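Below is how a single chain appears once it has passed through the pipeline. First comes the sequence as given, then the structure the pipeline wrote out for it. We keep one example in the README because the format questions we get most often are answered faster by looking than by reading.
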Amino acid sequence: MAGFSGGRKSILPGVAGRKSIENNHAMMVEVTAENPALEDNPISREMFEAAAKVGVDFILNVVTNSSRKIVQVCAGDYRQAWEAGIAASAEMYHLPLAEKADAALVSSGGFPRDINIYQAQKALDHADHAVKKGGTIIWAAECSEGYGEECFRKWMDQAAKPEVNIERIKEKFVLGGHKAFAVSKVAAEKEIILISSLSRAETENIFAKKMNSLQEAVEYLEEKYYGNYKSYILPQGSLTVPIVESK
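Resulting structure:
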């Protein structure tokens, strides 16, 4: 929601109260840019304001690779050190794309990133950036612990269609409900096929179609697009951030 982690997030949400966090995260409905915007992102902007008001003298942030090993340490001024970390992170995790595709095959990256839908959703969000409106996202995430959060589950249970959650979050922001909004926002524009341990009913409850294997999903794509389609493969979807290059 805020673009990159670290830096100003040490204060908000780091040591902020629940109400402050909810008020900040409520602005997620205003984040329309698909790239991890910073200056134009209202959530990030307010985080900077909070850090400036509190007065942060020093930060120490680290950048890790896909194996969670530290590859760079950035320390000093809370903004300058953080920007140095952004540069290193972007080099590893940003995926420049010339255009969006008809489909994407994305994995949340295995345990613990796909322990439940609540955690695995990040990969769905990233795949959303790479796929055209009306396209298809094949999403592989084990989700052995189900939905992962009760409020999230309740919102999905109570919504007959994605638009219900999209409008509901605008009326009142609730932590947990924000994940329902995030999933619904993708489902409103794209077809989601989920390969997981969730039941068919649980899968359809998040506006996705259940399939039992990647092979079944690929065969479905071939039939849907008559073999004429472009797709991207994102094996580390929770970490890979597709960036469509402006022309």
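The chain has two domains: 7-93, 98-244.

See the next section for the split statistics.
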